Amino acid sequence: MFNRDRWKEILEVLTSNWFRTLLTAFGVFWGILILIILLSAGKGLENGIKQDFSGVATNTMFMWTQSTTMPYEGLPEGRNFNFKLSDVQLIKDNVPDLRIVSPRNGLRTTTGVDNVFYGTESGTYRVFGDYPEIIFQNSMYTAKGRFLNYNDIVQKRKVVVIGDGIRQDLYEEDEDVLGTYLKIQGVNFMVVGTYKEKSSNGGGQNSERQIYVPFTAFSQAFNRADNVGWMAITAKDGKSISDLLPDVVSTVKQSRKVHPDDERAIGYFDLYREFNRVESLFAAMRWIAIIVGTLVLISGVIGVSNIMLIVVKERTKEIGIRRALGENPWSIKKQILMESIFLTIISGMTGIIFGSLFIFGINTLLDSVGPVDMFLNPSVGIGVVTAALTILIISGLLAGFIPAQSAIKVKPIDALRTE
């Protein structure tokens, strides 16, 4: 039940020395503010990094050929070799837990030498020969027209899908790109669609300057025969590509007559493992932020406890009189605990409010200046605020417990003798 006299006494005690109370409250305020800022900054960095993975099949590996370093079956070391289209089906047959195996080829680009032409415009762009499944492995979506399909593959159609950045570079603002022709290293291809990046953190513009050609048409136009430059391989849901990687590499080693112990003949990049490393890094950062913020908060709570001890010391005579008049020790203990909890919660809530305003200000600034690489939407979840409030209540109890115990141990006769 609300006791007006008790709360009036609490306010009188805390306001009797404003400067001391503010210094004490600042420790808790600063601790909770630091905790919120650290967690929100970590979340913003995490959001920015993960935005780069948006739409990307993270359970994916990329594999390419390198020179052999060991002789095998009469073939010398230092041999260069290529994957073949037949290796794609071989991998699918030997490693059934794979969802997508995409063979890829690409044109080499030379700085300063344009390889794509449209009318009087030209530019240097990355051109890939791909299968339709590549759209499920990359962070992109069809913006206009369509993407590659298997009819394009079977019929070796000379069609292309271009990034929206290329459309901006080579075409007029209102010009319809569908049905137009681009000349890529002397070969004409018809534009059937454009794509955009799913990532919205400002880094997609360079990626939107790529061109996708049906794998078969690419091989025919640029004399690649059945050679495969590299592969993008994605595991089925519930399976780890990291676990399947040895079987994939072993299969192509056997197919391309590479020594089983030759670790450098085939290069690969395990995106799933790298993504997990990023996840682990951010988990560690969250714990560091929590630990640092909690330590600062604890120092503030210790300050509250020390001040409450001083307050009890100053009120020794008052406590003795109240005890002599028959006041219940629990009533005195409750008074001290309430003062401690009230001071802790008020200062902590002020820290939460300032932390929220700080996050709001940062997000407003980011909205005004545009996306920032690797930093997006710093925030703190409601669970963190709830946990912070819980910590504040517990901290207030702990901060007031020792002074409260000290208060009820005061003997009335000794307290009355205190000057």
Task: Produce the secondary structure layout.
Layout: H1 4-15, H2 18-52, E1 60-65, E2 83-84, H3 85-94, E3 98-106, E4 116-118, E5 121-123, E6 126-130, H4 134-137, E7 140-145, H5 150-155, E8 159-163, H6 164-170, E9 181-184, E10 187-197, H7 204-207, E11 210-214, H8 215-221, E12 227-228, E13 230-235, H9 241-255, E14 266-270, H10 271-314, H11 316-324, H12 329-369, H13 382-408, H14 412-417
Parallel strand pairs: 6-11, 8-10
Antiparallel strand pairs: 1-13, 1-14, 2-12, 3-6, 3-13, 4-5, 4-9, 7-10, 8-11, 9-10
Any overview of this molecule?
By secondary structure, this protein is α+β, with helices and mostly antiparallel strands. It has helices spanning 4-15, 18-52, 85-94, 134-137, 150-155, 164-170, 204-207, 215-221, 241-255, 271-314, 316-324, 329-369, 382-408, 412-417; strands at 60-65, 83-84, 98-106, 116-118, 121-123, 126-130, 140-145, 159-163, 181-184, 187-197, 210-214, 227-228, 230-235, 266-270. The strands form 2 sheets. Strands 1, 3, 4, 5, 6, 7, 8, 9, 10, 11, 13 and 14 form a 12-stranded mixed beta sheet that branches. A hairpin with a 2-residue loop joins β9 (181-184) and β10 (187-197). The relative contact order is 0.18.
